[in-house]
Backbone:
């Protein structure tokens, strides 16, 4: 039985961040988090009406086998205070809007987990705004396009997670396209073992992945990408700016990987986020790989006790159909 944090668990770290006169009068664990607990706390005795608490603990993580993190693998689960702070520093330094960090604590003095208290952005997600106010949302999408420009023009000669590269480490693999191919083949094997529709065409999908990968030419410069930048990972602040969240997976990589995900998540709004010069051969490979990832990943998550099961099943089913449609 999972035990999530209560007000008394969060009070000490919030007082450390905002002062001893601050008092929590309410706490809510927000929906959607699968790797960390995200809590909105309502406050009394401080100028801020609320704050957000991130809590990285085993009981907050719904991914089976998620304790096998490998910083050298760009696609390994990205979770924890250290990668969060590294990503926050890098993005803030580039002028990308991210929530301000009010405090960070990995001492385990207040909690058995690493904790960060960050600014609450009360404007909601871009995903919600797109559904109710297209005009306002278009301006935020425009700001997000500016943000993407700042990130993708920030180049590095090596790919890998920001925290790893900051420490002088080297990411695994010979190239981004080889990493994507290897991961896609693993996802294909996993999906084929779970769904007969993938099983019967596994050979065709395997051949197609290898064929697309063989067309990709080498690259030696990489841009900064979020990795899962859907409209649910963009908040809207009081000035109408796009605020990036769930940033722990920030890394230098082929920007086509980001754009494939953007295209899938933003649909008709993607045109404002696109940019010239993307490699069409990488896009073709990465689209099929992404579809297979979005089949295998949700099905893997459903092996555990993730609560929003119908939603995850819908993601897997939709992307299974789309993957099959990419066969020649």
Residues:
């Amino acid at each position: 039985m999972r035990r999530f944090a209560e007000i008394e668990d969060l009070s000490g770290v919030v007082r450390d961040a905002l002062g001893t006169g601050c008092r929590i009068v309410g706490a809510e664990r927000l929906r959607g988090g699968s790797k960390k607990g995200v809590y909105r706390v309502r406050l009394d005795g401080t100028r801020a009406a609320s704050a957000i608490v991130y809590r990285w603990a085993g009981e907050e993580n719904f991914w089976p086998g998620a304790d096998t993190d490998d910083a050298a693998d760009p696609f390994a689960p990205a979770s924890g205070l250290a990668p969060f702070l590294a990503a926050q520093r890098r993005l803030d330094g580039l002028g990308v809007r991210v929530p301000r960090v009010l405090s960070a604590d990995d001492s385990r003095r207040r909690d058995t987990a690493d904790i960060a208290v960050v600014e609450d952005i009360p404007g909601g997600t871009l995903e919600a705004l797109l559904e109710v106010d297209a005009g306002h949302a278009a301006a935020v999408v425009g700001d997000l396009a500016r943000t993407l420009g700042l990130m993708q023009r920030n180049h590095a000669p090596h790919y890998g997670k920001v925290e790893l590269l900051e420490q002088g480490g080297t990411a695994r693999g010979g190239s981004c396209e080889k990493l994507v191919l290897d991961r896609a083949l693993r996802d294909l094997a996993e999906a084929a073992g779970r769904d007969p529709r993938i099983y019967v065409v596994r050979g065709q999908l395997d051949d197609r992945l290898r064929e697309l990968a063989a067309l990709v030419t080498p690259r030696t410069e990489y841009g900064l990408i979020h990795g899962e930048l859907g409209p649910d990972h963009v908040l809207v602040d009081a000035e109408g700016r796009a605020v990036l969240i769930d940033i722990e997976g920030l890394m230098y990589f082929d920007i086509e990987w980001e754009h494939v995900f953007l295209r899938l998540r933003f649909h008709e709004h993607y045109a404002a986020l696109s940019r010239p010069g993307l490699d069409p051969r990488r896009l073709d490979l990465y689209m099929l790989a992404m579809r297979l990832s979005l089949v295998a990943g949700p099905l893997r998550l459903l092996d555990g006790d993730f609560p929003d099961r119908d939603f995850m099943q819908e993601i897997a089913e939709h992307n299974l159909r789309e993957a099959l449609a990419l066969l020649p």
Summary: The mean pLDDT is 92. Residues 89 and 98 are 9 Å apart (CA to CA). Residues 280-301 form the longest helix (22 residues). The radius of gyration is 20 Å.
